Amino acid sequence: MSGQKGLSRRQFLTWASVGLGSYVLYRWFRFPPRDANVRRPRRLGTTFSPLQCRYLGLDDVETFGAICSLGFDVVRLCSYWRDIEPWEGFYTFESLDPFLSLAQKRGLTVVLTVGMKAPRWPEFHFPPWVEAQYSPRDASRPLDRDVRLADRALRFVRKVVEHARTFSCVRYIQVENEPFSRVEVAGGRHLSPQFVAKEVALVRALAPGRKILLTTAINLWPLKRREDERAFRQTLALADAVGINVYTRVPLGPKFYLEPLPPYWRTLSRWRREIAASGKEPWIAESQAEPWEYGQLVATQKRVYPSSTPQRAVDLAVKLAQLGYGTVLLWGSEYWYWKKRHGYDGWWRAVRALVTGVAHE
């Protein structure tokens, strides 16, 4: 009687390797679960920077009024040290108050950034007198190691918060911008966790009714995940709301772009769960909605660029909402208005459609 033999050792090892490899590939490429019924974030907002308006040659008050007309729920405004304390000990809020007043009139929730580091290049916006007296370009150690600079920064934070708390629309105060990350765009300059904790404690004491937002990011280079996790843990420990900055096509030279691998999305999904489990608010503080091109501070010469298009930006915001992020702030509002003023309203129409919840078919 003839019988069927079992697998040989070599065949078994081959099939085991194939099975293991398939499982690894499945785990690698598997996207975290999403709620396909979600068509827009529960709260949608943007960041506005008069600094960027000046760079683009836009009237900042006119631009902000137009942006408010899009129907956002939230707007993030920036208190730039260079504008608010142009001379030592002299504080003026002319660069901030028109936007706070209009946001309050429109019923918008405002996130106000405070500290040394704020959104938009070069991130550290020091007044000339600070540049002259201290060493704010030294990336070899935390900038706050200069005790005099740290003291001046805390005084600045105090003045801004004392002024901003008179506006009821300011519901969140963001302390610094990605304070625990050493990013290239800021020249590697950074702050110590101890100093950021002092700033957070100061803001809580001055404005107990406001929530603290801190921001961080996930690198597109997988080898930096350990740094990302450390920054995330430090952020989570101090904040009431944790904002993640998400950019999904970043230039790597003039022709190539970095894009997220599947572990990026799984980390983003896991972070949301951990933030929520800690009783805190998971935010996307920056969702890429303007081009980021190699060697260009703002890409304005072409109509569209590979790094970000209106549809790509809308798809990203919807994807983030489907991952469970209830608040998403789009990045690039000044750019949309500049494009609209220069004959291309594709960005403007796409964002308006997203706000109304009809953009994602």
Structure explained in plain terms:
The chain has helices at residues 9-29, 50-56, 60-68, 81-84, 97-106, 128-133, 147-164, 193-206, 225-238, 262-277, 310-322, 333-341, 346-356, and strands spanning 43-47, 74-78, 109-114, 170-175, 211-217, 241-246, 250-251, 257-258, 281-288, 327-331. It has 361 residues and is an alpha/beta fold. It has one domain (36-356): Alpha-Beta Barrel (TIM Barrel). Helix 2 packs across helix 3 (60-68) and helix 3 (60-68) packs parallel to helix 5. It is globular, with a radius of gyration of 23 Å.
What is the domain tally? 1
The SSE order reads HEHHEHHEHHEHEHEEEHEHEHH
Q: Assign the structural class, choosing from mainly alpha, mainly beta, alpha/beta, alpha+beta, or little secondary structure.
A: alpha/beta
**Architecture per CATH nomenclature, i.e. the level-2 architecture:** Alpha-Beta Barrel
Q: How many beta-strand segments?
A: 10
Alpha-carbon distance between the termini? 64 Å
Find the CATH superfamily: Glycosidases
Number of helices: 13
CATH names the topology as TIM Barrel
Ranges with pLDDT <50 over ≥5 residues? 21-26
Shape: globular
Helical fraction: 40-55%
Strand order of the largest sheet: 1-2-3-4-5-6-9-10
Gyration radius, to the nearest Å? 23 Å
CATH class: Alpha Beta
Main beta sheet: 8 strands, parallel, barrel
Mean pLDDT: 92
Strand content: 5-15%
